[in-house]
Amino acid sequence: MGNMMDTVAQRNILLLRYQRRFVKMDSISATTTMDYDNYEEGSTSLTTEMLDTICDKSSVRAFRRYYEPPLYWLIVILGGLGNLLVVWIYLHFRNRLKTMTDVYLLNLAVADLLFLGTLPFWAADAVNGWTFGHGMCKVVSAVYKINFFSCMLLLTCISVDRYIVIVQATKAQNSKKLRLLYSRVVCVGVWALAILLAVPEFLFAHVKIDYEGNSFCTMVYSGDQNNRIKILVLSLQICMGFCLPFLVMFFCYYVIMRTLLQAKNFEKHKALRVILGVVAVFVLSQLPYNSVLVMEAVQAANTTLTDCNKVRAFDITSQVLKSLAYLHSCLNPIIYVFIGVRFRKDLVKVLQACTCSQGKQSKVPGGPKKSSVMSDTETTRALSL
């Protein structure tokens, strides 16, 4: 009972501080107070937006200024090189797109590249604030979310395809051409669903100015007094961006592992290492940040975190774990492509073609018979994604 009374007292103190700062902020800028137009004096509910206004976040912004830009640029460089190489290999071997996973991997590389293209904007935002305008804030936020969701959904599609190829090998081989057609339809559906899931970014992404005059691009839920919209948006991201992909991947790879353990004359150890690596990297990169999103949704539903020091620590932790999740874009080419034996051979041959004479270049496999395109059977034997 005592702890509950202390929490209520803290909320009342913070609400009083908010009312005082709200009056002071009115003279700074019309944009500054755009989030609080619907605030009713005497309200007893404390929203997360109010906490952002009450608590001094200068230390959080200083951390972002020194932490995010170098890390984001490193992710852009490494992820860009890896994914551009993937696209280049697929375009060089024109007849390479012969399996569903090939189509998914090409779309995954494109989605990763578009996702990485948004990171320089966030790096600049961390250093100088948002200087690209209100429209670009919406566009960059939406493009980021579109490619985030498309990446997660494509990873889910890859796990389903590997399940079909390995667990239902005979059926998969008989319906190879039909499945290839389905894969292109599925990719269109994935991009359409990702665009739909990014609609909140188009609606709620705004350039926000704090009481110190710092501008930054963020989600602003105007008039959302009880944080219902924010909770819905966060829940949608957690479910579609982690829970659904994780559950599907876990089921598919669990059945695949059980099938491989029962198989004879199969390179079990290598295949099992690949599976464990795929699942482990996905969980280790995505689970921590999604745990923070769950805590953020709980905080929005019931503002129990009212100490400004804890709020600042939570924000810094969120930034660190979010950057860890971004690293997945660098690791996708390594995990889902370069572990493939056939893909590595194609890469070596392309690199050899670049260093050889014109006469030797003509010997580089390019025709249907000589190309080392992965077939479903070959992919199954070594689990070369």
Major β-sheet strand ordering: 1-2
Secondary structural class: mainly alpha
> What gap, in angstroms, lies between the N and C termini?
56 Å
The total number of structural domains is: 1
Query: Which term fits the overall shape?
Result: globular
The succession of helices and strands, N to C, reads HHHHHHHHHEEHHHHHHH
What would CATH call the architecture? Up-down Bundle
Determine the strand fraction and express it as a percent band.
Answer: under 5%
Helical content, roughly?
over 70%
Ranges where pLDDT stays below 50 over 5 or more residues in a row are 12-45, 357-385
Please report the first level of CATH classification, the CATH class: Mainly Alpha
Number of strands: 2
Largest sheet: 2 strands, antiparallel
CATH superfamily, please?
Rhodopsin 7-helix transmembrane proteins
Observed structural traits:
385 residues, mainly alpha, Rhopdopsin 7-helix transmembrane proteins, two-stranded antiparallel ribbon, cell membrane, GPCR_Rhodpsn_7TM, G-protein coupled receptor, transducer
